[in-house]
Amino acid sequence: MACAQGTEFYFADNTSCNTLASLLKKLKSTDEKTIKPYMERGDISKWISNVLSKKTLASQISKAKDKKEIIDLIQNQIDVKKGNIMKDRYKDDLLAPGHKTCAGCGASIAARQVLKALGENVVICNATGCLEVTTSQYPLTSWKVPWIHVNFENVASVASGVREALDSQGKEDVTVVAIGGDGGMLDIGFRSFSGALERNHNILVICYDNEAYMNTGIQRSGSTPHLASTTTTPAGIASKGKEQWKKDAPTIAAAHHIPYVATASIGYPLDLEKKIKKALSIKGAKYIHIHSPCPVGWYFDSMKTIEIAKDAVESKMWALFEIEDGKKTLSRIPKGIPISKYMKAQKRFKHLSDEDIEEYQKNIDAIFKKEFNI
Asked: Is the pLDDT of residue 366 over 60?
């Protein structure tokens, strides 16, 4: 007979198990007929509950109908345990966990994805903004690579200077990156952004675009979408939100005749990684514009950040493309889901009527048709 004794579970053949992994191995090699008495008496579930303190798993196993179901439950428990070990999940990340970004923050997701593609041989120049204030509160930092905080308005200029300094030391292999939000890169920092591109410095410029000044109170930026409600363009009786359309920063960047421009989304990390690595293979100024949803400023559940990011691409609200030698190429053909799915998931668009959204859809379709003939 089998029974639970001490910290081990004993089988009738005098073999024993003391971990979920060893129990799983034994169950796989034991026939259904031998296992059934253990199931009926509840020996396995009692042992798990008493010895391993896994009451939920024990409860599930007590209701199992056959050996396969028990094996699947234990295997899932082992897989979940492995997935929750922080040191394994984050040991290779160059942006350490424990920073103070909001739950579901698109900017921090973008930073992690970018650093994975860049590697360690890099200097990051970071403009004031959400990403900076949440990852570098003195005396702590989440950055595992050389990192410089600079003002809102001059991150691309500083990156240009760092590039020149490294080149003068013969360190041309070090990648220099200027990164900032849409406010710090495309509005307040636009002068230095444009200057660095016009001079064609061998740097990578990245904008994580959360479509407003999220760090200072959700004010509209040049990158805020048409009709989105912000604290400075509030929707109400006299207004339907921001009147202007979103600034076309990638096209503006390409107009500086730089060798590489691309858009990306945190919803498609492999596409982003591919574009980062492609940019690193090109000498001269490069610009990558990353769509980074913000749960706080866009007013959606923080669990849905990636879903929102994907819906933006699939609804044509955000296009994934590259511009090389003046030629624009679509990276992903969108599925063409209704724009209403994307907009109705965010309270910044909640004031729009079905008729407003229908008109918006027509405009987006027309823009996409003109740009990509799709």
From this structure: yes
